[in-house]
Design brief:
- This protein has 283 residues and is an alpha+beta fold.
- It has one domain.
- The protein has 7 helices and 10 strands.
- The strands form 3 sheets. Strands 2-3-4-5-1-10 form a 6-stranded antiparallel beta sheet, with no helix packed on it.
- A hairpin with a 3-residue loop joins strand 8 and strand 9.
- The longest helix has 25 residues.
- It is elongated and about 60 Å long.
- 33% of the residues are buried.
- The chain binds a DNA duplex (14 and 14 nucleotides) through strand 2 and strand 3.
- It comes from Deinandra increscens subsp. villosa.
Length: 283
Amino acid sequence: MESSSSWPENLPSSRIKAIQELTKGQILTNRLRELLDRPKQIESDSKSVNVVVDKILKIRRKIRMKASETKTHVKTKRGCYKRRKNSLTTTKVTSTLIDDGYAWRKYGQKTILNSKHQRNYYRCSHKNEKGCQATKQVQKTNEEPSKYMITYNGFHTCNSLYKAPQIIREPSDIRDNSTLISFETNALIENNKVGTCFPSMKHTPKEDFPYLDRMKQEQVSSSDHYAPWVSMVGLSQIPPEPMSIMSSGIDREDVVSSEVLSSTYSTHGYEIDDINDFDDLIW
DNA sequence: GTGATTTGACCGGA
DNA sequence: TCCGGTCAAATCAC
């Protein structure tokens, strides 16, 4: 763990603490991932697995408490809100408006400067009941009106954990920059291999991994925020949502870019742009 | 009646 | 000051 002397002087101590907790979580997640890679070891050493899971859950609770302390009401009257800076966004261009597996509710429509087509604004239908912060924007592209540019913002905290995306690179088209992403709805995930690039996920029967089930229960039962490292179990470098990108039927020509991901998640896991904005970080 | 969509107003950031 | 993102009342659809 890093000593406080390695932090920039002007970094608030609260932020340092939060980063340290997240780092701990990352380390524990890696440990858990290693264990998941060796199912036989898990059978013989289930105690240590439970210890790791307990630690992760403890850290998560800590950060959640911190988040609730930090969170301020950003909206006090109509139209008064804090625009999110550096929130996780993902943009894709698709020729079809396909169902991404989430329920969206339209909340606005605007004419955008230098754009021939209006932009439509959608938010998760579960925003009110579950406080889900995910939104998306849909706009026809100027060049090809038959194509849509879809921008996803924020995490699905409504039920997102088991809808983690699966990035699949077609072996036959490895040079193609396009990325295919699919989901396994409500499926737990374990490591496997897809192609040569990513560990893949495959449904894991919960009775085989009761501790994961425990994490899932806690994830669902508590306050609907998102655990970066928990979602990263088995995901390797694949970041968590904004990912409601695709469930099925994605076009080969679709282009997906994760703009903020590159700044938010380093190759060693994730980094934190703005720890004050807990809504963007913590489930 | 209930939930979704439309649309003008409002606010923050650049 | 302008523009983009969001709010919320009015309206629509079922």
